C-alpha cells in the first residue's frame, strides 16, 4: 500500500458515476488475459439494480488516469469483489494493493464481517495475491441437474480447482 502511495497513486470510492473509469481498465485487462469481456451495460445494470449495496473502487495515477478499479457488492455482512482489474503497465506501482486496501477499509467501516475476494485457482497469481491479505480458501461446490440420459459436464482440472478466498 505504501509503495502505491509513494508512486503518487490515489484512490476513490463511489457509485455508478465511476463506471466510465472502470470499464476501459476492465476491458483492457480482460483482453490481455484472452478472456471475453462483459458488456459495459452489465455494470450499469448492477448499479441500477443494487444502488445501495454496490460501490466502485478506483485507483488513479498522478495524471488522473484510472489504472485499477473494482466493483464491491454487499449482501448482509459480506462484501464481495467479483470484478477487479488493473493495467499491466502500472503493476510495479502496486495499484491492486491500494485498490483492495480501500475496499477492505470500506467494508470494515460499513460493518461487514467478511470480505470475499472471489474465485481463484490455487497457487496461481491471483490466489497468492489474495492469500497475502489473509484470505483463506473456501471450496466452491457445483451442483448439476441433468436431464434424463445426459452426462455430467466435462470439467477441466482448473475448473475443479477453483475456490473462493475470504478474509
Give the averaged pLDDT, no decimals. 88
* Distinct helical segment count: 6
Low-confidence stretches: none
Q: Order of strands across the biggest sheet? A: 1-2-3-4-5-7-6
Q: Termini, distance in Å?
A: 18 Å
Quickly give the structural class: alpha+beta
Counted beta strands: 7
Q: Looking at the structure, what is the overall shape?
A: globular
From N to C, what is the helix and strand string?
Answer: HEHHEEEHEHEHE
The Rg value, from CA coordinates, equals 17 Å
Largest sheet, in brief, is: 7 strands, mixed
Helical residue percent band: 25-40%
What does this structure look like?
This protein is α+β, with helices and mostly antiparallel strands and 167 residues long. The mean pLDDT is 88. Helices cover 34% and strands 28% of the residues. It has six helices and seven strands, in the order αβααβββαβαβαβ.
Q: Features of this protein?
A:
alpha+beta; 28% strand; 34% helix; 6 helices; 167 residues; globular; 7-stranded mixed β-sheet
List strands and helices in order, with pairings:
Elements: H1 2-6, E1 10-14, H2 19-33, H3 40-49, E2 54-60, E3 66-75, E4 78-86, H4 95-109, E5 114-120, H5 125-131, E6 136-139, H6 157-161, E7 163-166
Parallel strand pairs: 4-5
Antiparallel strand pairs: 1-2, 2-3, 3-4, 5-7, 6-7
Amino acid at each position: 500500500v505504501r509503495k502505491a502511495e509513494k508512486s503518487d497513486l490515489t484512490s476513490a470510492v463511489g457509485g455508478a458515476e465511476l463506471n466510465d473509469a472502470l470499464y476501459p481498465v476492465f476491458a483492457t485487462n480482460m483482453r490481455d488475459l484472452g478472456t471475453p469481456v462483459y458488456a459495459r451495460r452489465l455494470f450499469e445494470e448492477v448499479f441500477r439494480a443494487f444502488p445501495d449495496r454496490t460501490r466502485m473502487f478506483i485507483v488513479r495515477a498522478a495524471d488522473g488516469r484510472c489504472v485499477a478499479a473494482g466493483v464491491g457488492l454487499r449482501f448482509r455482512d459480506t462484501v464481495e469483489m467479483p470484478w477487479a482489474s488493473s493495467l499491466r503497465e502500472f503493476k510495479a506501482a502496486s495499484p491492486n494493493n491500494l485498490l483492495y486496501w480501500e475496499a477492505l477499509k470500506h467494508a470494515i467501516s460499513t460493518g461487514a464481517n467478511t470480505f470475499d475476494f472471489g474465485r481463484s485457482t490455487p497457487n496461481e497469481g491471483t490466489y497468492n495475491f489474495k492469500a497475502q491479505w489473509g484470505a483463506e480458501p473456501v471450496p466452491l461446490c457445483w451442483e448439476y441437474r441433468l436431464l434424463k440420459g445426459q452426462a455430467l459436464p466435462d470439467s477441466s482440472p482448473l475448473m475443479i480447482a477453483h475456490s473462493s478466498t475470504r478474509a
